[in-house]
């Protein structure tokens, strides 16, 4: 029965003596040998002639040896050599048909292709979530820019009126100077001043200028924040970075969206430079901040704190919002899990954030009490482990 089984195997089986000479060759192995340009049954090859020198040494030392051996024209055979020491030592060599190996390679190739496709899909999801959060931010930023631009515009309108009044007054003075009796004109000048409300203009104008300047400065600041934020987004490499700077530029951007609902408290500790992908971490903070804001219905507090503990640093976003029910806590990191209406939530933010923390060999911890609020803590190693 054993012989019949060996005859039917598609794998080549060779049993060899301790000196490497062949004791038994099954039909599949015979076929392989006939097809091999160098091995042929007539030559009576020993193991040493077929396998690389280290094969027998490895099998002697560790019991087995595995590798691919050349099978002519760039094809390979999978070979497994085992040392069998029961009843006097001998070797067992298993050879796998190139067809089967090719199947394996097909499998490997398909596996690699799938991996590439999966990575591309993940990349797309990451981009989708980014776009969704940026869409929300854009609305906030637009509002924030619109407001100062609005009053600077209306101030410019007033300024135009004031200027024409001032020019009218200058005209009145000129007329007075040119007249034969300037003193007689003074009464008219007084009248003009009153009519044009020059006293009010001289009080209002400096205020109007200050206010307009502040408006323009606010717009400049928002544009600078946007630039900081997008600069860090373009440069995505492992670097030693100041987490506080990253968090601050993210807060500046996100805050436009949140300031009407929440007050911000910062409790920063001392942080060393942290080895990280800063733009990806910014995306994590952005998502935690937006989630915190969305959890607050009317008014609340968002507290951002940081600190160091041993070889790790942490950054935490806490809110006084709705909180998360116990049974939901395990699901919030699942991709596409969202409790928000369509268009607001993608359900990807936390799952992507979790992935980014994991890539940094870190983690995200959550604590939440329904009705009281939630805290999300990102914990990261200061230095990435070697290799
Ligand atoms: N700070 C928070 N307070 C309350 N619930 C939260 C908070 N952060 C996340 N969640 C819950 O986790 C879910 C998933 O969050 P997330 O992955 O960012 O997706 P999304 O914000 O698009 O819904 C949210 O829909 C919400 O139910
Ligand atoms: Mg979110």
From TrEMBL:
SMART domains the UniProt entry points to: HATPase_c
Record's keyword annotation contains Metal-binding: no
Enzyme Commission number, as recorded: 2.7.13.3
InterPro entries associated with the record: HATPase_C_sf (IPR036890), HATPase_dom (IPR003594), His_kinase_dom (IPR005467), HisK_dim/P_dom (IPR003661), HisK_dim/P_sf (IPR036097), Sig_transdc_His_kin-like_C (IPR004358)
Gene Ontology molecular function terms on file: phosphorelay sensor kinase activity
Catalysed reactions, as listed in the record: ATP + protein L-histidine = ADP + protein N-phospho-L-histidine
Protein's UniProt keywords contain Mitochondrion: no
Keywords recorded for this protein, A-Z: Kinase, Phosphoprotein, Transferase
Domain (Histidine kinase) ranges: 140-384
Protein name (Swiss-Prot/TrEMBL): histidine kinase
Organism: Luteimonas salinisoli
High-level lineage: Bacteria, Pseudomonadati, Pseudomonadota, Gammaproteobacteria, Lysobacterales
């Amino acid at each position: 029965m054993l012989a019949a089984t060996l005859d039917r195997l598609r794998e080549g089986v060779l049993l060899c003596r301790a000196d490497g000479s062949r004791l038994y060759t099954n039909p599949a192995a015979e076929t392989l040998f006939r097809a091999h340009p160098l091995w042929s049954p007539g030559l009576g090859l020993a193991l040493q002639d077929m396998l690389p020198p280290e094969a027998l040494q490895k099998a002697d030392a560790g019991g087995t040896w595995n590798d691919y051996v050349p099978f002519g024209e760039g094809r390979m055979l999978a070979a497994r050599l085992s040392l069998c020491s029961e009843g006097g030592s001998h070797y067992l060599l298993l050879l796998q048909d190139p067809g089967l190996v090719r199947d394996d390679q097909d499998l490997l190739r398909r596996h690699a292709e799938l991996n590439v496709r999966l990575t591309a899909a993940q990349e797309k999801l990451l981009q989708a979530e980014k776009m969704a959060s940026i869409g929300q931010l854009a609305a906030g930023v637009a509002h924030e820019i619109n407001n100062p631009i609005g009053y600077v515009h209306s101030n410019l309108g007033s300024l135009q009126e004031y200027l024409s009044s001032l020019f009218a007054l200058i005209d009145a003075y000129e007329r007075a100077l040119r007249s034969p009796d300037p003193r007689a004109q003074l009464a008219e000048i007084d009248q003009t001043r009153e009519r044009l409300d020059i006293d009010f203009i001289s009080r209002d104008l400096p205020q109007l200028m200050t206010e307009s300047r502040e408006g323009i400065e606010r717009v400049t600041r928002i544009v600078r924040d946007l630039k900081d934020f997008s600069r860090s987004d373009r440069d995505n490499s492992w670097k030693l970075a100041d987490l506080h700077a990253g968090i601050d530029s993210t807060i500046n951007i996100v805050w436009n969206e949140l300031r009407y609902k929440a007050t911000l408290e910062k409790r920063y500790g001392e942080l060393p430079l942290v080895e990280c992908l800063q733009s990806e971490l910014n995306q994590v903070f952005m998502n935690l901040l937006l989630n915190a804001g969305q959890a607050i219905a009317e008014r609340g507090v968002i507290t951002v704190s940081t600190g160091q503990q041993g070889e790790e640093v942490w950054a935490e976003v806490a809110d006084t919002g709705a909180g998360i029910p116990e049974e939901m806590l395990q699901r919030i990191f699942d991709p596409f899990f969202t409790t928000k209406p369509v268009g607001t939530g993608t359900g990807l933010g936390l799952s992507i954030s979790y992935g980014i923390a994991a890539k940094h060999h870190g983690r995200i911890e959550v604590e939440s009490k329904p009705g009281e609020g939630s805290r999300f803590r990102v914990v990261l190693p200061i230095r990435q482990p070697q290799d």
